[in-house]
Specification:
- The complex is a heterodimer of chains A (249) and B (125).
- Chain A is built from 8 helices and 11 strands.
- Chain A is globular and about 45 Å long.
- Chain A has a single domain, classed as PAC-like subunit (Rossmann fold, 3-Layer(aba) Sandwich).
- Chain B is mainly beta and 125 residues long.
- Chain B has a single domain, classed as Immunoglobulin-like (Sandwich).
- In chain B, the strands form 2 sheets. In chain B, strands 1-2-7-6-5 form a 5-stranded mixed beta sheet, with no helix packed on it. Chain B has a 4-stranded antiparallel beta sheet with strand order 3-4-9-8, with no helix packed on it.
- Chain B starts with a helix and ends in an 11-residue tail after the last strand.
- The chains are: A alpha/beta (249), B mainly beta (125).
- At the A-B interface, helix 7 and helix 8 of A face helix 1 of B.
């Protein structure tokens, strides 16, 4: 299993991390779009990356600068973990463990994973609702106070689900935010809803006007990543999210 | 994993000669219908052309403005695209009659009736 070992590498040492935000390609690319926009608008600095021998042999070049595709950004007491490639479902446990262990070692006060929840009637919805899953009663209190709907019942599948599981084991306070979204089309509108909730929770000031104005371009630009993510999601039991859990029925 | 990854990379979602990008599409089936959805951002309803062709459903739509992707792709510095184009393959034969299409928030949804099995027996002489 050592081949699947995943490590968080700090290029610039992170000494303060109150909030750790995680957004990787998933349903409607909502978490990725939201977090990349926050990183860009807040001008967060690149501080590290996540590496593994099991990752695909790829680097990303931005402005002639080669970078690993999974990176850490930081500003003040906020650290964001983003990925420019879809996550292979077989690597989800190792990646989740590395993120949770890292967050635990930094004594993170709240880990927030951002994603979407596919809804069939997305076309009828103007402003998508955001649902929150909290690891403890006090986190659920935070969710309610931020005006986010508490997610009551259902399955959640993906990296954010396994991160939550790890956080429960290690008692790292954590939260999953899920915006109503398209399943297989990039959904900047859902990302804007996530950012609004995130702003209230973390106290960031991020204006989503530009994001919504560029929504069509983002939809065009993200097609390929969506297509590849779709293939990975099929392996990650995403269909489960539409099922009713059997307990207590 | 690496080989899957390169297979995916190799599949292009654009056509330089045509100047078109391939839109995202999904196909689902009900008992008597095939439902095709195509994501068409930056498109006006009146600019969408739909045609049933042998390989499937042909969707063509000009973009309301050309899209230039700066530093796009691996080697090209930039490239301009004028339209979205895709032939969506269909799981079963359909008929053109009774097809319905709607376009809302940049998503095109087409319902096509499945072709009924024709029970034609060939007589043996």
């Amino acid at each position: 299993m050592s081949g699947r070992a995943v490590t968080v590498v700090e290029k610039t040492p992170v000494d303060r991390c109150r909030y750790c935000l995680v957004g990787v390609p998933d349903v409607g690319l909502v978490g990725s779009i939201a977090l990349s926009y926050v990183v860009q608008e807040q001008q967060m600095a690149e501080v590290g990356h996540i590496e593994s021998d099991a990752f695909p042999p790829v680097i990303v070049v931005h402005n002639s600068d080669p970078k690993p595709p999974m990176r850490l950004y930081s500003k003040g007491d906020v650290v964001a973990v983003v990925s420019e490639i879809p996550i292979d479902p077989r690597l989800i446990p190792s990646i989740a463990r590395s993120i949770v262990d890292w967050a635990w070692s930094k004594r993170v006060e709240l880990l927030i994973a951002l994603s979407g929840i596919a809804v069939q009637n997305r076309l009828e919805i103007d402003v998508p609702t955001v649902y929150g899953v909290g690891s403890s009663p006090s986190v659920r209190e935070l969710i309610k106070n931020a005006g986010v709907e508490v997610f009551e019942e259902g399955f959640i599948a993906g990296l954010h689900a396994v991160v939550m599981e790890g956080c429960l084991k290690k008692s790292v306070p954590s939260m999953i935010l899920l915006a109503q979204s398209h399943l297989q089309y990039p959904d900047p509108g859902a990302a804007a809803s996530l950012i609004a909730s995130l702003s209230r929770l973390v106290g960031l000031r991020v204006d989503t006007g530009k994001l919504l104005a560029q929504a069509d371009e983002i939809r065009l630009r993200m097609r390929e990543l969506m297509q590849r993510t779709q293939q990975q999601m099929q392996q990650a039991q995403k269909g489960r999210e539409q099922e009713i859990p059997p307990m207590y029925v | 994993m690496a080989s899957d990854f390169f297979d995916e990379l190799a599949r292009e979602m654009w056509d330089l000669r045509r100047g078109s990008l391939e839109p995202l599409a999904s196909v689902s089936e009900t008992e008597d219908k095939v439902v095709v959805e195509v994501d068409l951002p930056l498109v006006k309803r009146s600019d969408i052309k739909l045609r049933l062709v042998e390989e499937g459903l042909e969707v063509e739509a000009s973009l309301t403005r050309c899209v230039r992707f700066e530093r796009w792709g691996t080697v090209q510095r930039s490239c301009e695209f004028r339209s979205l184009y895709k032939i969506v393959s269909l799981p079963v034969p359909v008929v053109a009659e009774g097809a319905r299409a709607t376009f809302k928030r940049g998503i095109l949804r087409i319902e096509l009736k499945k072709r009924k099995e024709i029970d034609y027996r060939i007589p043996i002489e």
